[in-house]
Request: fold
Amino acid sequence: MLAPQSPPTPSPAHVTAVLRILVLSTFVVLLNETIMVNAIPRLMREFEVTAAAAGWLSTAFMLTMAVVIPVTGWFLQRVTTRTAFGLAMTLFLVGTALAAAAPVFPVLLAARVIQAGGTAVMMPLLMTTLMTLVPPHDRGRVMGNITLVISVAPALGPAVSGVLLQAGSWRLLFLAVLPIAAAMAVFGRSKLTNIGEPQAGPIDWPSVPLAAAGFGALVYGLSGLGAESAAAAPLPPEATTAAGAVLVGLFVWRQLALQRSSTPLLDLRALTFRHFSVALGLMCLSFMALMGAFILLPIYLQEVRGLSSLQTGLLLIPGGLTMGLLGPQVGKLYDRLGAPRLVIPGAALTALCLALFALTDAGTSPWLVLALHVVLSAGMAFVFTPVFTSGLAVLPPHLYPHGSAILGSLQQVAAAAGTALVISVMSGHAATAAAEGADPTGALATGIRWGFGVGAVIGLLAVVVALLVRTPPVPQQPAEPETENDGDGAGTTTDKTAPTPG
Reply:
């Protein structure tokens, strides 16, 4: 019997076209993750809802991402690239149109959930396609461009919303995005070609509700810790967090069991690759610190320094642009210098900036805050691009979708954990300062300083983990790993050029 022929190698122009479509589309959908932050006060007045209810517009988005992403590892291996892209953009467009026309608050909340479902598919699709198409020696440069999507889009969300809200109704947040997303969907669907062949395989249905309930409860519980509405929550955030952790533990146990006898929903063998696990740890710590800073900075600028939402948005734009502009340059440096020479200084610079933010008070100049935010964003750029590139590069191709799904899932958990931690610390110390006689602004400033201090400690832990990062060896030629059955159902890699665990 003749062996099946390998698919033809795509040309560089074809690779560039595919990635450009996915990058631009992912940027548009990720921008919406944080675009509602500045609109909450206006929505509270228009729909007559509490701050806690309005906050669900952001929480539900993050929650849906955490629920859907774990399933994408299985999903992306079983559908074509065009099918996955079409589903993601359709969900996002339906959600955006529904949000723009929402007559009541529950409809707007449902629209955000639909939007997030599309976003949750786009991010792993982009990462998996990149790792499949781009040769190892060029991944740093390309991943540098991806940094624009992963980090800059959420960072620019509050700034964009501040500008649009100044121009008119909150519905502009969706009406402005809708034609851009529609154009990307039509153009992408007409130009995008399929990468690889779908692999038919069963799905372990018990794993789906375990993943949804586990990651959903964990992110929901973490998001509620330290919030003002925690005491009035139907379920205590501590109990929800604990229940989520238990369910995630059961999900992990089931996946490990399925790896020995069947096909897991999320293949955790990616975690046996040491470089991937180290990169994952650094990514989690970095996102905890970054999301903590994103939460604290608008509160500080508006409630302590008295800036408007528009002024706050404009002040934060340079930092987001810095991260985006540095991404491609850091990617090129990664291809030349490797990961450690970039990640270690970047993590150290991030920790230093967070420590300096912890020294701010009610009299700190907004221009100094702007400068620190730009430097903080630069430090993060030197961390994210090498971490994503070196972490996924050690995995064999059949684990790319699962590695991307693991990374995306833990990114949401880390963001929720970072937010919960700094809000808890800020609220606690602000209350203590108020009880000791500080005025409301001074008490809040004290709490924010402690919040940034916790971020600095997380940043210091990231520096320690960054010391363990290594640049994976580049194989001489790309090759699909061949597997042999080792007796318990698990495959072992025999291709000499494929990455190996460790």
In short: The chain has 16 helices and two strands.
